[in-house]
Write a structure and sequence with these properties.
The chain is an all-alpha fold. Helices cover about 55% and strands about 5% of the residues. The chain has 2 domains: about 5-95, Cytochrome c-like domain (Cytochrome Bc1 Complex, Chain D, domain 2, Orthogonal Bundle), CATH 1.10.760; about 95-155, DNA polymerase, domain 1 (Orthogonal Bundle), CATH 1.10.150.280.
Amino acid sequence: MSSSASPRLRAKFFACILAVTPAFAQLPTGPGQAETQRLCSQCHEIERSISLRQDRAAWQGTVDKMAGLGMKATAAEITATIDYLAAHYPASEMPPLDINSARAIEFESALSLPRSQAAAIVQYRTKNGPFKSIDDLKKVPGVDAAKIEAHRSRMVCK
């Protein structure tokens, strides 16, 4: 938007941006929604955050990890965010991850893998064919075997 645009045109532009922005996140309304949106979107898209389904302790660990990586938040914002995530994105709603059909973002979210490792799993599967067991994930070069073991109960091999 150029600085020479009329104030009316600028206002219309920003109104459109504000109208479209909430459509990306689609967070349920509730206490902690604003804090969750603000904190989780500091370093990645909100969809990545809410794709996780965890119990309260796991959400606490995830938020603590983000704080350790530099997320700017007050103690009250962190508490509100954990309360919100635990209420709206609980672990009980997460279906098992089928390692032979999951997309990279699903591996990343469900197994807490870095983006590069999740992509490596999908590339390996594409090149070598379907996995025969969950242990086959450990054959993927560069993948954290400890995370595979830690999340074994959340995966299936169909």
